[in-house]
Amino acid sequence: MNPTSYTRSAMLPLGVVTLLLCVACCTWIEYVFWARKHVANMDMLLAASDGVLSGTPHWRAFQNRLLGPYLLDLFRNVSQNPYNEFAKIFLMLENFALCGCAYLLTRKVSLTVLALVSSSVLWVCCIHYFSYPWDFIESVTLTMLFLFAVRSAGILPFVILFVIFVLNRESCIFIGLFLILRGVSPIVFGQRIAVRPLTWGTGLVVASIAITEVLRKVLFKASMLAGVGTDTLHEKFENHFHHLDNGTVLLTGNKFAILYAMIIVVFLACTYVGYREKAKNLLAIGITMTLYTLSIFVFGILEEVRLYQPFTGILALTAIYLLFETTSGRKWRSANMSFLARRGWIRT
Known about the structure:
By secondary structure, the protein is mainly alpha-helical.
């Protein structure tokens, strides 16, 4: 979509009030469910965060995740329950970021509310008894990544996002991967490679690997968990390989398999629509997020649903954008949701 094609009027005061109320309500609901789930193991979560600062985290793989623990430590100056206050602030930040991105992409309050509520429902469904500070920050960065991917033609927004992301989690590598894909995607449509994003993307990928490896090896002293010690199993760039166990989970067709499959389908649809409509940025972000989700299958544990929580915002944005802001989405709604259009509930 061309950003200059939007000529819709600015949001009315009633729309602003509606979105503020929705953000407050969704944030409160998410926090209540989160607090109830984590009250029993809050000390262990704080220990995992503090271990990063002392060089003795649970696992070596946590050692480069500096931003969240440092921010969480600041909350000790204002509260005796720092993680609770941290969660409130970052849940609100994510919901505000999601609202801002959804409105900039659709210019409709109704669709913005739909994206926010959908994301919140999915977030609550993905609550796990462990959720770390870096999970909250990743939610915000991934949500912003989709907006930049669809709307920004420049490199600077991605570099700024990378600087934040690289101190939060090693998955910052996917920002560089997106730029690489944006650079080479014109080949699919018989066009020349875009050298600038390809060069910057390659540089960010190299930087993400180098920074992650250096931080893990320099800052890590020993694991605080009994019997782990030097944590040699996490010396590689990624954690363990779990693809065989995850394959078994997928074959069972349980709720984890269904949730994971739904995420894959949305990002594959994004890839398909980007290819069909010759939208290079949409194609690139679709492939990027598909690979990001597949990395969970290889290196993560599908039954650890906290891994899906950072996806809820970008997943809602992707689905709303595909359905309402692309030609393919409008055609699909005309063919499959005509009964809603006849009742005046949607426009096709």
